[in-house]
Amino acid sequence: MPLAAVLIVLLSIALMFLYGVPAVRGRLSDSAQNLVFTQAAATAEAVAGARDAANLRNELRLAADSSGGEVIVVDPSGGIVASEGSVDGFEATQEMIGSAARGARMSGSSETVSVAVVPIITGGVSAGGVIFASDEPQTTAYQLFLRSGLEAAALASVLGGGLMLLLATILSRRVERLTLGAKAIEGGDLSSRIDPGFDDELADLARSFNAMAAKLQDSFVRLEEKNETLDAVVNNLGEGVLATNLEGDVMFANPTARELLGMTRKRVEDIWDPQELPDPWEDYDLPRAVARCAEEGECGEARVRGRETFLRIYLERMPAFDDHKGGVLVVMQDLSEGRRLEANQQRFLANAAHELKTPITTILGASELLLTGDEDEGLRRRFLNHIHSEARRMQRLSETLLRLARTGSDGRDPEPVPVDTGRVVREAADRMEPLAERAGLSVRVGGDGGRVLADREWLEQVLLVLTNNAIQHGSEGEEVRLRAEADTVAVEDDGAGIPEEDLPYVFERFYRGRDGSGGFGLGLAICKDLVERMGGEISISSGKGAGTRVELTLPQDDPPREGGR
Question: Is 198 left (phi over 0), alpha (psi -120 to 50) or beta?
């Protein structure tokens, strides 16, 4: 752009010379012609007043020398009386001589010479004429004009070109800043701003760009916040959410949907990269249902049973999706947990009723026999022992139910205090040792212990439940081991173990295993709830015939360093 500005200045000057010089030259030629007429008239007057030939010669020489021209005197007969001076390229023509002889006026000019013919008047009568030729006025004026014009043109070129170059450079840089700013905004850098510079139209344009970028940046920030909020909500839903285009390809799937459909994260790594919709169930064709919903509008819901799941599938057509071409929303709700919990509750009620019915029947039968009063003392004592044993059994059931109720609905928060795990483990072992001896088992305590932050009462309750479970599932001559190391407490046994298929559910309430043996299915659920409320973790590892290990990890108690640091 700066070079173009300089070329424009030079072109303007060239056009000025092209059209201006001929016009000025014509005006100079007219002015030179008038000057030659004046000089010719003055010479004719001087010639008319000459007294003799010598005086005439002097007047002619003076006129020729002062003007730098050529003077010719012609008498009435057309003869040249005298001449003085010389002009290159001039020669008097017969027309000029004849006009001078007749006393007529005449003018003419060529490119470099101007000629004037005037009469000589003596006593009111024409006495011939004077032919006056000169090249000095026209040439001198033209050369002066041309030199001055060239100097002015050179000065105008320098000043104008420099000024135009400066202005063009400033404008070019400002336009370049505008261009770079616009490209930055186009590229997504909405924080980019353009310096307005001077207060002119380009500054107004720069401020408009800045205002537009600020509004776009604010809009994108709000939109990004909404998208992040929506993503957080959708990705943390317990229901699976999946969206497809009209062709049935997956456009979006949250983590729950990927898990329910067996889709890996890699398959839906880019949510806008369409993926093939899986067909994981035998009794429900999901791709066909989605296609029917997209093409015919028959959506609705269905219930689908998998190997270990029971789902409610809800389909809805979305018109404003995939660039407003449309799509299908699939919502999958896993009802397996509710069904499993309901089934466990039903089993629990049946087991509880059975557990209550057996001791009640025994108590009623024994009491009826005692009421007859015919039995001897030994038989009466045996019946009383039956009644006492069954009553204790009912007491244990009621205590378990009450403990469950307190754990589930008690609003008491844990009261964490520094606890020595080694000491708590030894106390639990001491309390459970009589029960273990009656079952023919031994209890052994190991580990160096440690200090944790825990609710002491709750930790003791957890250890008693776990140790009791180990004793109940142990065989005579086996060993129950309690071990405390740092922030970890473990209870191990060498019993029959837990089948692998039951391990995922052992911490669920009312779950008693697939064979339905054991207690009421509440102990481990209570332990898990208490440990997690204390800020810890509980895990179990077992195998059929390989014993069981339950491990607790609790927050460590970090005593303050000396000096308060």
Answer: beta
Tens of pLDDT, residues 413-428: 788 899 998 898 888 8
3-class state of residue 75 by DSSP: coil
DSSP state of 520: -
The reply to whether domains 238-334 and 412-553 share a CATH topology is: no
Helices (H), 236-335: 255-261, 286-296
Contact 445, 426 (CB under 8 A): yes
Note whether 485 and 447 are within 8 A (CB): yes
pLDDT tens digits along 444-457: 888 888 899 988 88
Closest alpha carbon to 295 in 251, 227, 245, 341:
245
pTM exceeding 0.85: no
The predicted model gives 458-465 an average pLDDT of: 86
Is domain 238-334 annotated with CATH 3.40.50.300? no
| Architecture per CATH, 2-143 | 2-Layer Sandwich (3.30)
Of 173-177, 231-235, 375-379, 484-488, minimum mean pLDDT range: 375-379
- CA separation for the pair 276, 262 (Å, rounded): 12
Q: How far, in Å, CA of 399 to CA of 401, rounded?
A: 5
Could you give the C-alpha distances from 384 to 184, 250, 288, 377, 389, in angstroms and in order?
94, 71, 69, 10, 9
Classify domain 339-408 by CATH number: 1.10.287.130
